[in-house]
Amino acid sequence: ITGVHKGLGHALAAVCLERGATVYGLSREEPADLAEHPCLRFTSLDLRRFDAIEGTLHRLLEDAESLDLVLLNAGVLGELKDLAETSLDEMATVMDINVWANKVLLDALSRWGRGVAQIVGISSGAAVNGSAGWGAYSISKAALNLLLRVFAHEHEETHCVALAPGVIETAMIKGVLATPKDPRYSALDRIQAAADEGRLLSPRRAAENMLDRLDALRAHESGSYLDIREMA
Length: 232
What we know:
Elements: H1 7-18, E1 23-27, E2 40-44, H2 50-60, E3 70-72, H3 88-112, E4 118-122, H4 126-129, H5 135-154, E5 159-164, H6 171-177, H7 186-196, H8 203-212, H9 214-218, E6 224-227
Parallel strand pairs: 1-2, 3-4, 4-5, 5-6
Helix pairs in contact: 1-8, 2-3, 3-5
């Protein structure tokens, strides 16, 4: 699981540990409340350091014979603003974490060679909505969707999906909610309405929803993009 220090990644790690799994976690900071759990294997890694990813991952997985599940969770939003106001450097920062770090991780898993049964990449409805103001994030998540689809075609032994988990009450969404209202960005109003109506998921509930649907995800074609809100 990537991004286990906070938010959805932390909740995914906690729920997996509670369910008896051995969890291999990557993030810049260790989740302090999980650090002493006997089934957590953690290594600190800044995913922007592409050259460090493969060696770090292989060391982390040294005692693993195979992996049942990989959760590519780590991601960043970037600043909400028009594309014309967003520099290529700002776009690159978002793409580095949301796309290219995952590409390097997938390559490293391929070369690890011990078998990965299932990969779930955390996507977003933004990948298909293309709402105003969400340019860097939307483009990065659309690219992630296609990255996983290509990987699925090249690695038929591993089932892959890109999954939009719904709107979750994470630091990312809290930052969005703190953004001043702007009539250009209607998605802000939709997220605010979801918060006002109590429709935001807690990270734990979102993690449970995802993990409870792992078998259902495998019923879909490998490489698919799925939105958990549209699943039965």
